[in-house]
Here is the input.
Amino acid sequence: MIVTTYRDDDSIAEISEGDDVEIVGRFSQGGVSTIAMLGVKIRNVNICGLQLDASIKDDNDDTNPQVRIDNRTVTLKEIDGWGASYNLSTFSNIPACPNQWASVNVYDNPFLARVAIEDRDGRTAETEFHIVPRCVAEFSTTCECICKEGYTLGEVCS
Amino acid sequence: LEQDLAFKEDVPYLPGRAILSWGVLFVKRLAFVPLMILAACSKGSVNLTPPPEGQGFHFETEETAIPFGVEEQDCYFFQVPDNGEDVFVDKVEVAMNEGSHHMNIFRVRTIAGLDPANGELQTAQDGTGECFNSANWADWPLVINTQDDQDKVEWQLPDNVVHHFEPGEWLMLQTHYVNATTQKTPYKGHVEVNFWTREESDELIELGTVFATKQSIRICESNPTPTFEGSFSFVSDEPIHVIGANAHFHSRGKKFNMYSWDGTSTETPPTEDRFYQSTEWDHPPMARSPELDLEIPANGGVWYNCSYEWQEPPEDVGCDTLNDIDIAKGTAEEDVDCCYRFGGVVDKNEHCNVFVYYYPKVDDINIF
Here is the structure.
């Protein structure tokens, strides 16, 4: 199983320990939320109705390692012999910001990502490694505001 | 209920009448609607007696005709009375005419496409318009919501627990009326709300709210029974009390659960930790105090999941319409699958929305 991420420019990238994950926003539509997208590229499983569970953990704080999760039932798309997450709804959309949960800024700090799958036939796979969420340059002002440690809902971000 | 929730058969309506005062804020507007039609159609509207002067404030919407085939979402802006002092509310009453899909009240914060400066009432129909665009209230804290168009909601908060408002604070009341295939509006759309105030005290405990929604849901013909799970936590060194909860999805929705959660585990909590379940999309229950008073451990939160069963869309919608929406939202043509995506139109879209009320407030929490 390979873990993938969906980027703000609609491209999909494979990721592993220490890689960046863009926190994809809806700023262009006037929204103020950002999502970390984690998906999979996998072989030898039933790709229909697959259970995809993903989370990011704030292990920067040993005493309060808060977690954000997104679990969902997905049907992957067969691409070059792999079953793959291919559009937004087939990735786990982990609500990273507004940051009302982490002990550090959600951008530019490492978080522990966990991705697990189970297919309809009971086959399972799981992996975890650190990722570094990054704000996309075009929307960095708003992103860095709502993803900072201690953000308060409704805070003026301009 | 019979005394307070009287049908409004003999209340004269004056176009554009608005009365605002401390103690009672009372707004009635029916501009541009012929009075003869009003007399015929106002029968069947709910009516709440406003609080006596000095004991609260009242707001009510217009009576809005909803023609068959129309979904109307209206955003009304009004202000908390301003006498120079903070306002503390410990009881809220809401009454809605039958056919309401939901009524939400939010505190106005960042202005995007909805601005109170653009008028007291800003309407949208059939999914089009700023009052349908949830990005416009993405950081607007929830005040109160209900989906109960059968009975008046009367919620007395626990002792000393209050909504805390700034004097003159802008609020937005959003009504969604549906007269379509899956939901009907037999009379007119109309909502009334009473806010009952109390004196300030050192013992007051502020209420906090949570509004969480999953915008990336997609319920498709080839993946017909998906479940989506999410969570949020109250980052607090002390336990908190959840005293209100309800959930919102549309007619493909089969089961909506909420659980007490420790804030750190990544597995669905056990059934014994479940404190809310809805299996009726059009009449979801609202759990609230005094029956609901759930202590969540320090730094814990709420885990929720919403499960669906794909249905053939209504004839007047059809898969072609759903596929067009999907393509417009970025799905490649070869990947369309008669999917219901996130959105407010009952026959075309789905929702997975959570409303939670708790104390003491850490922060209001919105998750989009």
